[in-house]
Please model this.
Amino acid sequence: MATSSDLRAQPGGVKGASATESVQQEAEARRALEKELHELRQRVKELKVVNEISRILSLSLDPQDVLRQMLCEVNCALGTQAASVLLVDESTGELVFQMADSPAVQEITTLRLKPGQGVAGWVARHGQPVLLSDASQDPRFYKGIDAMTGLVTRDLLCVPLLVKGRVIGVLEVMNKSKGALDESALRLVTALVPSAAIAIENARLYRAVREERRNLESILYSIADGVYTTDCQRKVTSFSSSAQKATGYPTGAAVGRFCGDVLDCHVTAREERCDTRECMLSQAMRQRRLVIQRGQMRVAPGGEEKRLEVLRIAAPLMNEWGEMQGAVAAFWDVSHQAELERLKADLLAMIFHELRAPLSNLNASVEMLLHSTLDEKVHREILEIIGSQSARLTRFVQEVLEVARLESHEIKLNLQPLTLGPLVREVVKLFHYPVATHRFEVHAPEDLPFVQGDKDKVETILCNLIGNAMNYSAEGTVITISAEEQTRGVVVTVSDEGVGIPPEGLDRIFDRFYRVEDPSLPKVQGTGLGLYIAKLLVEAHGGDIWVKSKVGVGSRFSFLLPKLEPGDAP
Model:
């Protein structure tokens, strides 16, 4: 053992020991600083990665795009072989593979894991991350994925995606290329997943909102003839395809335009165009309520300008704070309904008119017979008046009933082989009694082929067409009835030298109660049902009926009945 005298005998011994200890302490401090500096640099690098990934995720609301970019950045930052995202199916609780950033595992997309199945299922159920250096040795590991993809999972990191404490999915990374996944990888991914989960949830909500909007638009567009929205200045912001079809105004040209320039609307009660206060959009925004109007709209679908009778509905558009954003409006074309209402009114007026005159005549004639002493000649004239007015009432009732039966398909045709030449001549003779007011010319060959028809109904067709020609042509003019064979059947044409039909009336000439008004002719009596009945009867025979006309020259009404072919049963 060295004594104190021995130590004193060694010069510089104490100083040497202190120097060595100091060097060691300095080295240890340097190593600690270097380690701390390395950790700080690593944390800065991790934060940069997290910030960059968060920035990238905030740039898109497409769920698939968000997942794709996130997995790519994670794989790049950690140097891992594969990464994937599984999202919770809220209806079943299962985990569904939504995206994988590795060619080897792309095929597992849409694969489902049962609740709690595999490491991912455990993480989703418990809401805690799992870091495994050798996943295959963990009892929670599900080997079916490796068997399906051919990928061998070594190290595995699985972190829950949480939004407001609720697990919406799981992020998995595996197989670090250099070394193994460690606490630094766990720290980086744990720092990343909050922003990633929010980005995923926002993208899912955005997609749900878009789908809901599309569904609502589909419903709204399907129940209206036109739907559009405007801003607070009534400039169009959207214009549905149905509105484009109804108005003839292209959607691209409508957006950004003042609504009054796109939709030429008028208030029914007045002919003037709606102004700012009368506009239902202005009313809806000013009064903050639903507004319903009946009006007219001038449109030009296909370039042909016309005026529609429309029912319009407008409602205000407000944001969640109650601030006015504009208005939404829909319109329905009720022109057909308006026309039906007009026809109904015309029918009632026609019925009252047609019944009033003959009933008045009948009442007057009966009064004269009951309360007057009349000679035989006057007595006979009164009886003739009664007879003619009774026949007029009978014809009117028969026509109305005929229309009702035809429209309800209650009439049964008594079909038999007919040759139209003799039938045309027979009908024309009826119009010579008691006095022929027009000259008739008949051109009908004797060898016309047979058609299959109901004789009485075909007579009605001919009578109605000839009667119409007489009503709309001056007395003494010629009415020509011709019949000829054509490829599809036999065509009968009734031509007159009358007033003709204006072009706008050609499409309506076979409508119920439609009549051409001409001041040059005396008031035409009748129900306005003759041509309509003729059309229904021709169509009941499987034929066609049409008209050609020129104003001031005359009209040609033609109908075709199919030929009776060999083997056709009567």
